[in-house]
Specification:
With about 200 residues, this protein is an all-alpha fold. Helix 1 packs across helix 6. The N and C termini lie far apart (about 75 Å).
Length: about 200
């Protein structure tokens, strides 16, 4: 009897190690030999799971999004007495955003956007983040009757706040307290209540 194919399961088991390696070393400095060493496999075994380093990196990017999504799903399941899902997400990110350094893999990917496969993976990642936040902003507005900037713009602005907070963390430019304020103050303004923006 043939043994069952465990490739998908094995990939899931190894992805955290790939993510950690790319976070620490970036894309260019990470070699498949290093990935094999850290996963305790031979390089040819890694290549049976992914065709090349780029595919491993793209899978790691997707894992970063799924990890964030799982955290947010847990927040969504919390008691609604703690504010709307959007408010809980902002409060959580104000305290924890970037603490695991996963943004570093995204930053590494941004230096590889001349590669169309990596560029598509990043567009997909940012698009998923943005759509998720739009949904939360719209839900918040319905629950609170708050008005504010267009939800799509609010979502991109919140993503921008996260990027600035990560740059500040990486370069030691802003304290943990300032990073928290970056999320809490503008974040709440982006949720509302504000008068809707009107063009002249």
């Amino acid at each position: 009897m043939a043994r069952p194919n465990r490739s998908d399961e094995r990939r899931e088991e190894l992805l955290p190690v790939l993510v950690e390696t790319f976070v620490e070393r970036g894309y260019r400095r990470t070699t498949t030999a290093e990935l094999a060493r850290r996963t305790e496999l031979q390089e040819n075994q890694l290549y049976r799971l992914w065709p090349d380093k780029r595919a491993m990196f793209v899978a790691a990017l997707d894992h970063v999004y799924r990890t964030s999504e799982e955290t947010w799903a847990a927040l969504a399941a919390e008691s609604p007495g703690d504010g709307t899902r959007a408010e809980r997400l902002i409060a959580h990110e104000a305290r924890h955003h970037g603490e695991h350094g996963l943004y570093r893999i995204v930053f590494a990917g941004l230096s590889e956007t001349d590669d169309p496969v990596v560029a598509r993976a990043l567009k997909r990642l940012y698009g998923r983040f943005q759509r998720f936040v739009v949904e939360l902003v719209e839900e918040h507005r319905e629950e609170t009757d708050a008005a504010g900037v267009d939800p799509a713009l609010a979502a991109w602005s919140l993503i921008g706040l996260g990027t600035v907070a990560n740059i500040g963390r990486e370069l030691g430019l802003v304290s943990a307290r300032t990073r928290r304020a970056l999320f809490e103050n503008p974040g709440r303004l982006l949720l509302g209540p504000l008068e809707p923006y009107a063009e002249d």
